[in-house]
Amino acid sequence: MPAVDRIHLHTLPLGAWSTNCYVLTCGQESLIVDPAAEAERILAALAGTTVQAILLTHAHPDHLQALAAVRQATGTPLGLHPADAAEFGVQGDLELTDGAVLRLGDGELRVVHTPGHTPGSVCLRFDCRAIVGDTLFPGGPGHSDTPVALAQILASLRDQVFTWPDDTIFYPGHGEGSTIGAVRPAFVAFLARPRSPELCGDVEWL
To answer: Please, are residues 76 and 49 in contact by the beta-carbon 8 Å criterion?
Structure first.
């Protein structure tokens, strides 16, 4: 079986911000990534599986509004990066530190720490795909609250995300994804252009 088919990904856009919750399954095992809202829809997508964990790409409220209900219903551990646990006061059970590997059936996910949108933002790589939270969108980086945060997220993209192969499919926290190769030219051009030292917020490549 090709590696890309080993883990099945199901996308649920949920809540007022259409935040993407991802349900990953491999065999009879499943993982929940970013239980954004509408717990009943998330739980329905898990039917017939054994939930191994709930994972957060970051701890902003729009990514975890259904966390308490889903955690209570499944009784599974919560994983997030320790920097976001400290920043947002979210108590977790698993530390999603850079390079950590999580097993799901006969597949695995690798944690990539990509600070900038939040101190503990992470991406989750598996097969030739990645869930990137609010680190990357087809049209630009994730929101940055300060110029320092923008510099940090751009460094995360340069040093981590855009080292991935061009055929890597990425799935963001909101909206549709793309491939690393499709976005790379705009990212490279953005880095090459001069920009204001005060630039931050909702930044676009073009």
So the answer is: no
Sheet holding 50-55, edge to edge: 8-14, 19-26, 29-33, 50-55, 78-80, 94-95
Q: What is the pTM of this model?
A: 0.96
DSSP result, 48-110: TSEEEEEE-S---GGG-TTHHHHHHHH---EEE-HHHHHHHT---SEE--TT-EEEETTEEEE
- Encoded amino acid at 72, one letter: Q
Domains parsed from the chain with CATH numbers? 3-192 (3.60.15.10)
Contact indicator for 132, 171 with CB cutoff of 8 Å: yes
CA distances in angstroms from 73 to 103, 166, 204, listed in the order given: 22, 39, 39
Spell out the per-residue pLDDT of the chain, length 206, in tens: 334 458 999 999 999 999 999 999 999 999 999 999 999 999 999 999 999 999 999 999 999 999 999 999 999 999 999 999 999 999 999 999 999 999 999 999 999 999 999 999 999 999 999 999 999 999 999 999 999 999 999 999 999 999 999 999 999 999 999 999 999 999 999 999 999 999 999 999 99
Which residues have CB under 8 Å from 198's CB, separation 6+? Answer: 147
- End-to-end Cα distance, the chain: 40
